[in-house]
Amino acid sequence: MDQPLLSSFFDYFGDVPDPRIHRTRRYTLVDLLFIALCAVLCGAEECTAMADFAAGRREWLCRYVDLSQGTPSHDTFSRVLGLLDPEPFSRCFVEWVDHLHERKKGQIVPIDGKTLRHSFDKATGKAAVHMVSAFCQANGLVLGQVKVDDKSNEITAIPQLLDMLDLEGCIVTLDAQGTQRAIVHQIQEKKADYVVAVKANQPDLMADIEAFYQRNRANRFLDADAAVVPHTYQETIDADHGRIETRRCWACGLVEEIPSSPVWSGLKSFVLLERERLKDGVSTLERSYYISSLAPDAGKLLGAIRAHWGIENSLHWVLDVTFDEDQHRLRKDNAPQNMATIRHVALNMLKNNTTRKASIRRKRNMAAWETAFLEEVINN
């Protein structure tokens, strides 16, 4: 990335359409977004804190934005975040991340949804906002996000998100809800590969894969005897917090043995994954199935599956614990999803910063306490 983060922010987000009447504008939209971003980087969680940040850091902010008419109030931030159209805002975010993110062949991109739990409004009957995000496992950056329509689900949101992203050469992972023929075909059209979970929402496919493994149990297939049925096998063992977890992964490329396989674009392999957990002398066993456009390499496929699980800790957990996302009570109009995008911008900037070795929480604290570090984050 040759262009500094700060100048790229103003370049890319300066294209977001301003929903306000021109004569009522005291501040440009990109200036307000910049102030909101810096406030969030320093720990702000809502509009009142953004206004307090602007007032407290006015002298510093004047180096970057025009505050000749004073600092914006919390009502200004609330009104603008509510009016702002989240779709072009998200598209500008994706373009900015594409500038920030160096895409490499084989990068794993988990796509998963998360509910903003306190964004519901009982008074108006508005349901909590549910966002679907794409995440780069290699560098921890959020690549894009879209809101799920109130009367729909992730199946309609995932294609919108895929359409926004440049995924050529990447490996997209999805849980079972995203395992749809049209979505898999779209991933292939984007010149990417997929590893997707198979559950009861695809009963024919799941039954075919289960039947294949059941037929071959008698041939000691599950004993990793590759001489009987061609396949690959990978096993990992992890011990943590008094729990031992063993993962056994079998990958097979005999897609002609799966009657429903022709309808799945680019299908090259299917996977059985066993997870055995031992804790306090009690053992539990869980089996999961997957399909993929990748060759039947059990090690690579298990790595992609585990990377998908990692989105919970690397993204959702960070947003909940470090940014307190689940407790946010912004509810009006478009404010919840626009605030989610600002948090994603802030998280990407903090992840991109390598001048200090610290957790995201510590970096937010340091940005609040040290103006010099805040400048390091935004000027990387």
Q: Any overview of this molecule?
A:
A nine-stranded mixed β-sheet has the order 3-2-1-4-5-9-8-7-6, sandwiched between helices. The chain starts with a helix and ends with a helix. The protein is built from 14 helices and nine strands. It is elongated. It folds into two domains: 5-97 and 335-378, no CATH class; 101-316, no CATH class. Helix 2 packs across helix 12 (335-352) and helix 6 runs parallel beside helix 12. It is 41% helix and 20% strand. The model has no long low-confidence stretch (mean pLDDT 87). The protein is an alpha+beta fold and 380 residues long. The longest helix is centred in the C-terminal third of the chain and has 18 residues, at 335-352. The chain has helices spanning 5-13, 29-41, 47-56, 58-61, 74-83, 86-100, 154-164, 181-189, 203-217, 298-309, 311-321, 335-352, 360-369, 371-378; strands at 108-116, 129-136, 141-147, 171-174, 193-198, 232-240, 243-252, 269-279, 282-292.
Give start-end ranges of low-pLDDT stretches: none
Q: How much of the residues is beta strand, in percent?
A: 15-25%
Shape: elongated
Number of helices: 14
The gyration radius over C-alpha positions equals: 23 Å
Q: Domains counted in the coordinates: how many?
A: 2
Helix content estimate: 40-55%
Query: Roughly how many Å apart are the termini?
Result: 10 Å
The secondary structure category is alpha+beta
Q: For the residues shown, what is the average pLDDT?
A: 87
Total number of β-strand segments?
9
**What's the main sheet like?**
9 strands, mixed
Q: Strands of the biggest beta sheet: in what spatial order? A: 3-2-1-4-5-9-8-7-6
N-to-C order of helices and strands: HHHHHHEEEHEHEHEEEEHHHHH
